Amino acid sequence: MADDRNLTVHTYNEALANAIFARLPQHAAALEVWLKAMSQRLEPD
Description:
- The protein is mainly alpha-helical.
- The protein has one domain.
- It contains two helices and no strands.
- It has helices at residues 2-8, 14-42.
- 0% of the residues are buried.
């Protein structure tokens, strides 16, 4: 995900943009898992 972000910072390559756009659902799923894990760690026992 970080690599995709870095690739898009200074590029105007439409093919690359489309490839990264296609991976966004995977990135969103990974962020949801991460957010859930962080939320569980912050919940009081």
